[in-house]
Write a structure and sequence with these properties.
This is Tyrosine decarboxylase. InterPro entries: Aromatic_deC (IPR010977), PyrdxlP-dep_de-COase (IPR002129), PyrdxlP-dep_Trfase (IPR015424), PyrdxlP-dep_Trfase_major (IPR015421), PyrdxlP-dep_Trfase_small (IPR015422), Pyridoxal-P_BS (IPR021115). One of its GO terms (cellular component) is cytoplasm. Pfam families: Pyridoxal_deC (PF00282). Keywords: Decarboxylase, Lyase, Pyridoxal phosphate. The chain is of the alpha/beta class. It has two domains: 251 residues, Type I PLP-dependent aspartate aminotransferase-like (Major domain) (Aspartate Aminotransferase, domain 2, 3-Layer(aba) Sandwich); 130 residues, Aspartate Aminotransferase, domain 1. 44% of the residues lie in helices and 13% in strands. It has a seven-stranded mixed sheet, with helices on both faces. Strands 1-11-12-10-9 form a five-stranded mixed sheet. The protein is globular, with a radius of gyration of 25 Å. The protein starts with 7 loop residues before the first helix and ends with a helix. Bound molecules: pyridoxal-5'-phosphate. Pyridoxal-5'-phosphate (PLP) binds next to helix 5.
Amino acid sequence: MTMNPLDPQEFRRQGHMIIDFLADYYQNIANYPVLSHVEPGYLRELMPSFAPLNPEPIETILRDLQQHIVPGITHWQSPNYFAYFPSSGSTAGFLGEMLSTGFNLVGFNWVSSPAATELESIVMEWLGQVLKLPKAFLFSGSGGGVLLGTTCEAILVTLVAARDKVLSQIGRENICKLVVYVSDQTHCAVQKAAHIIGILPKNIRVVKTMKSTSFTLLPESLVSSIHTDVQKGLVPCYLCATVGTTSTTAIDPLGPLCKVAKEYGMWVHVDAAYAGSACICPEFRHLIDGVEGANSFSLNAHKWFLTNLDCCCLWVKDPASVIKSLSTNSVYLENSASDSNQVVDYKDWQITLSRRFRALKVWLVLRSYGVANLRNFLRSHVEMAKTFEGLVRMDKRFEIFVPRNLAVVCFRILPCAVARIGNGRVQNGYLTTEDAANEINRKLLDSINGSGLVYMTHAIVGGAFVIRCAIGATLTEKTHVIMAWKVVQEHADTILNH
Ligand SMILES: *Cc1c(COP(=O)(O)O)cnc(C)c1O
């Protein structure tokens, strides 16, 4: 056995084996239970207690992979995967990732790998144009884009810039006065980022949303929150508006929210982690109308844009404010290109120094499929969601809980269906029919996921437990969606008839 860990011949041989393994995996993926049913700690019993001292052949390792690891995998690429949000992989996304890993370069600044930086700026420009982002967000305007790992990072990066911008005006000692605004539907990433950068927990304002307005953040609710804070001498700093909330894909009204924020000199970040991808379709672009009033905008290409994890696209109007907060200078990083101020040094646009060549993934995806096919891919999922929604509506025991925006359907068994069938149980066991409905819907979800045939997850909004069917796995077709509804109905039959 060769002792060179990067021997080209062995690389070729073993690399082909892994590709074959994955091709077989994708071929057979629908046969696996979508949600893994292993017990906590299952792997410890199957693995040796100590790392091997001597080399083992790839054949043995692959056998253990199939026998021990695969059973503990939840199959996000399964066509029957409808949980959380999709993680839509593709051949192009995979190959781009593979190339990035193969080059294994560390492109922290321009000179450390010029193509990595330049390709990233180019794909961010391409994607920004396809999304019809205002020029102010693009390099061709006065803005620019960067590829980060996740939305959590995009939020942290923009929040730091927003914090320092305000503190440069009011003095760093006043950090305890800064307020961050979110809605009760905003992703928890904002609270975490606020915590990390020293915003006081009591200054994270969680504005309430309501079912009657589809759980969107209302400008008037925001205004009244801000008024109260300003009267107390606090300083509005950052608003995170969401296009496509995680629970129900609610769309916050960007135009009016940005207008309010502008009055108070607040930074607005638009988190379009899931729904942003859909905005490459002209018919969905209106979801981000008003984005011109925001300071930054991000989406996760690893959710619904055929780009394998991880890949968050962030555009900012004023890169200088981000760079001001995050730039680092060390003697060993000094170089004439950076000194010339003619290049982008992406290390100053992110938390970490080292960074991966993510642009290859986006470049391969855009080139391999073309914008036309990407649009059709997104549309096909929205059509499938419409089909699923139609099926839910035909069953009178169920309701669509909030209007569907894209390819996520939020539904539940109606409280009245539970009350009718449960008879005395409602009065005996539960306080209200809503509580009973929550219990039954939770049971239903556990039951369908236990079948292994599909995997869906839940949200709790306005006190109601709802089941989310998020359509967007790359391999999902209409037949899978119809089958998924059959599974739901069959399990509902069993649960409601007991
Ligand atoms: C998924 C999601 C996030 C978190 O994304 P990460 O990339 O995992 O950090 C944030 N916001 C919204 C609206 C999301 O849907």
